[in-house]
Amino acid sequence: MKKTKHLQIIAGILIFIVIIIFINIRRKEGLYRSSMKLTKLPKFVSVDVNGMEVKSKDFMGVNLYVQFIDANHEMDTELFKDVYSKWKKEDIYFILIINEFERFKSRVEINTDNIVILNKDFKKLETKFNPYNIVGTHYYLIDNSGNVVTAGSNDSGYENGPKVFLKRLVKNEHFSISSFIKLNENVKGVEWLNQIAEIADAQNKDYYVISMFTSICSGCFSGELVFFLNEFYNKNQNNIHVLCTLNDKFNDRDITRLKSQLKINLPVIIANNKLSQKWNSLIKEFRENDLTNIIFILNKSGIIIKVYDESCKCWSQFSRFLKSLEIQEITCLMY
Amino acid sequence: MSNVLKILMGLLLVFSILFYAFQAEGTQKVSRAKGTQKSHDNWEKMLRDYPIPKDSIELELRFSFPKKDLEKKGIFLVNPRCMQRDSEGNIYVTDDRLHKVFKFDSSGNYLFQFGQRGQGPGDFITPHKFFITKEDILIIGETGNMRFQFFDKNGKYIKSFKIFKGYNSWVVGNNGLIFALPVIREESDHLIEVLNQDGVVISSFGEPFDFKYKNSIYNQAEIEINHRGELYVAFKFLPIVRKYSQNGELLANFIINHPIMKEYGDYNRKNQSLLAKGKQVKYKFVINSIKLSETGFYLMRHFPRIEILEFDNKGKRIAQYWREVIPYLAEYFVVCNDIKEKIFYVLYFYPEVKIDVFGQKDNLMKKGGD
User: Fold this and answer.
1) Strand pairing of B57-65 and B354-360?
2) Measuring CA to CA, which of A29, B270, B324, B334 is 20 to 30 A from B105?
3) Burial of B338 (0-12, 13-18, 19+ CB in 10 A)
4) Terminus-to-terminus CA distance in chain A, angstroms?
């Protein structure tokens, strides 16, 4: 009986120690998190411009757009104007945390149905959201479970900033290039890819690796892709045609600049009218970041056998596939 | 007895949880305060460990700008990236958060601004470094749009060309060629690339320092050109300034004899080896900025005090100017050789954004001694 009691006490102490360690770890995570980006809608209580109490829990179950606005900062106001004009009739609520409401009011016309304006506790809410960290966060998109879907600064503007994330959150629209460049489709039958089909027709290669870029910089992922493709081209140009396609922002002189600055020699072309039209319409509908760093592979007949874009997060798998084409050639040579 | 023990254990648990939960927020504050205190202690220690040499010249603040009253008109800097001076003494500042360029006269009076966020001619996305030619043409680099844009001194757009790699600093030579320092990616890369006025790289020269991994900032440097067309390259993380001819000939390699620069340079060299082994370490700035004079060059450091060292063209130090300020981050400066004295404009970007203008303290000529 006594032994059981002792065991109970020891078990109790052990549980106690485990809980303390667990709490300690969580506490440290909390400390670390304080300098990191926000992941959940923080708990807060404040008062809106009409003097009504506003609590964070009032927003559970709704999609939420939160923005900090420095009324002196034109770009903060401009970003909000863009977001609000396009999304005010959709299933989303807006929280604006403003330092000078009167100044803001004179610049932006708002309907107060789905918007809460907090202008009393700017500093307090700043510490809760911690928005002005190194990346300069100004807005947060929060889903109906209170999770932060994305956060960003006003730097990117609406088109390259919250637009795509609002589409995902509110309309459940997700972008994938494979909806437009479809597996097993022959490029000869796709009108907007006729430029690629013609190039493939003129060559007699086993495979065609076609890449599409709206921007390239050596220190970015696009640069890494270009260097990779250039190396791949130099190794395999006998049986694989590698092509870098730039959108119509660029011209022939840019190709010379690109090749001289990055010291590359793979073929580079500018998209023709049809490709540009389609490319630009997709950029307009989604955003430029989704329509760059795209690679697709055609077989000898022009059939699309593999598509890569950044959203698939599958670069290592894709590059392995490319390497496998390389190995095939070596195997053939060995035979 | 057993029940009493259980209750006691339960209470102990509840109290402990409450204690830790409430302590968490307080600990955060303490931790932040400790962090600030630590940097402050470090600053004070550096001031003690590295006293100012006796023959150095103290600077005094003459004025600061942009002036506070401009804020009400919506004119202020948020995140300035570079500052340069034109042939008339006007000061230009790029701001990569506002996507604009601001122009002030030499007295700090606001003249005008140009640019807005966008991709068209004259627009900017994150403008950063720039160079002003002797004809007062501004060549402004943009990270967002990846291009160099050319403007006249009135902010009128002239032309632009695309760039496909990061350039840290650039100047224009007598023959119109652009000498630019690229981000060094591979061992085979050169320190300086020569671009024609259309942005095509036509040659390159200069060996980078022992390069151990891709896209290193170890070789990050700033380039300046003097009236003789000699190129000066100051390494940001090493106490070294190199002088090149425009044909790529290495004319001189100055090793700067300065205790903090030496210590930080050694630290960075050591960390370069650690980084090569995959360890995460930070570099310390050795030289923040370089500017040239008629007869030599100036180097600026900002920690633990603003120090501007003046050298002749043989690399011999001829003067040292200093100003003790609370830890501010300053990355750019310009020098104005007034008839009476040297004036230094220092751009601070953290924690307060401002340009301080310094003259020599107790300058008799300035104070009516002439």
Assistant:
1) antiparallel
2) B324
3) middle
4) 81
Residues A126/A68, Cβ–Cβ less than 8 Å: yes
| pLDDT score at B90 | 97
The answer to whether B162 contacts A257, with C-beta atoms less than 8 Å apart, is yes
**Whole-number Å distance between alpha carbons of B168 and A178:** 37
Residues in Cβ contact with B139 at an 8 Å cutoff, skipping those fewer than 6 apart: B130, B131, B132, B133, B148, B149, B150, B170, B172, B178
CB of A61 less than 8 A from some CB of B:
no
A92: number of Cβ within 10 Å: 20
> Tokens representing A106?
């004179």
Sign of the dihedral through C-alpha B132, B135, B137, B141: negative
Nearest to B31 among A8, A31, A258 (CB): A31
Helices (H), B249-301: 259-276
Using a CB-CB cut-off of 8 Å, the residues of chain A touching B119 are 249
Residue A293 gets the label, from left (phi > 0), alpha (psi -120 to 50) or beta, of left
Long-range CB contacts for residues B76-79, cutoff 8 Å, separation at least 24? B76/A72, B76/B353, B77/B102, B77/B353, B77/B354, B78/A73, B78/B353, B79/B349, B79/B353
> Predicted ipTM?
0.83
Number of A:B CB contacts under 8 A? 101
DSSP conformational letter for A288: G
Relative to beta strand A115-118, strand A93-98 is parallel
**Local structure of B104: helix, strand or coil:** strand
CA atoms within 13 A on the CB side of B146: 20
Q: Return d(Cα A296, Cα A315) in angstroms, integer.
A: 12
- How confident is the model over B247-259, as a mean pLDDT? 96
For residue A14, the SS3 value is helix
pLDDT band (50, 70, 90) for residue B218: confident
Q: pLDDT value at position A76? A: 80
- pTM for the structure as a whole: 0.80
CA-to-CA dists, residue B101 to A131, A216, B68, B337, angstroms: 26, 25, 18, 24
Q: Is the pLDDT of residue A134 over 70?
A: no
Go through the domains of chain A in sequence order and give each one's CATH number: 45-171 (3.40.30.10), 177-334 (3.40.30.10)
Q: How many CB atoms lie within 10 A of CB A314?
A: 14
B110 DSSP β-pair partners: B104
B163: nearest CB among A13, A16, A261: A261
Is A262's CB within 8 Å of B165's CB?
Answer: yes
CB B111 within 8 A of CB B126: no
Q: Are A222 and A215 contacting, i.e. CB atoms less than 8 angstroms apart?
A: yes
| Mean pLDDT of all residues belonging to chain A | 85
* Residues B80-310, CATH architecture: 6 Propeller (2.120)
How large is the average pLDDT for residues B233-246?
96
Residues in contact with B128: Cβ distance below 8 Å, sequence separation at least 6, in sequence order: B81, B82, B94, B96, B141, B142, B143
Residue of B nearest to A31 (CA): B28
Tell me if B316 sits within 8 A of B334, measured CB to CB: no
Test A257 with B97 for CB contact under 8 angstroms.
no
DSSP string, A77-88: HHHHHHHHHHHT
Average pLDDT, chain B: 87
Query: pLDDT higher for A319 or A134?
Result: A319
The backbone torsions φ and ψ at residue B217, rounded to the nearest 5 degrees and listed phi first, read -100, 5
- Who among B24, B74, B78 is closest to A30 (CB)? B24
Nearest alpha carbon to residue B233 among B162, B187, B293, B287: B287
Asked whether A45 and B44 are in contact (CB, 8 A), the reply is no
Q: Residue A227's closest CA among A262, A261, A256, A254? A: A262
